[in-house]
Write a structure and sequence with these properties.
With 117 residues, the protein is α+β, with helices and mostly antiparallel strands. Strands 1-2-3-4 form a 4-stranded antiparallel sheet, with helices on one face. It has one domain. The chain contains 3 helices and 4 strands. The radius of gyration is 20 Å and the shape is globular. Strand 2 and strand 3 form a beta hairpin.
């Protein structure tokens, strides 16, 4: 009986530690091939659907991220360069597109882009 109580106590402690665990924020300069998905998740959490365009601009400025605007597509284009390189020949960049509808975020898409030197 004591063993069962110990196991239950141990398991409840584990679940409290994993639920209460605070994830670290990934800085733009620290994005790499291993953590880019987590970076995109935190980016999307900071700019949920419905966020005003002005708030997106401010967030990008606060993060010191350069971006381009495509007015015809109502989107911001963001490229985080060289998150992975193999043999110094091929590199991988992270492309993020923030789409707008009525000057509010409607969708965020991301993908890895293989580039040359």
């Amino acid at each position: 009986m004591k063993f069962v109580i110990f196991i239950l106590f141990f398991l409840s402690g584990l679940s409290m530690n994993t639920n209460g665990k605070e994830e670290k924020t990934i800085e733009v300069s620290k994005v790499n091939i291993h953590n880019y998905e987590q970076f995109v998740e935190q980016f999307e959490a900071k700019l949920p659907i419905g966020t005003p365009m002005a708030d997106v601009r401010k967030h990008l400025k606060d993060l010191d991220i350069e971006y381009g605007e495509a007015h015809s597509e109502a989107a911001f284009y963001i490229m985080i360069k060289k998150i992975h390189s193999r043999f110094f020949i091929f590199t991988t960049d992270l492309a993020i597109r923030v789409y707008f509808s009525d000057d509010h975020v409607s969708e965020i898409k991301s993908r890895l882009v293989r580039t040359g030197l």
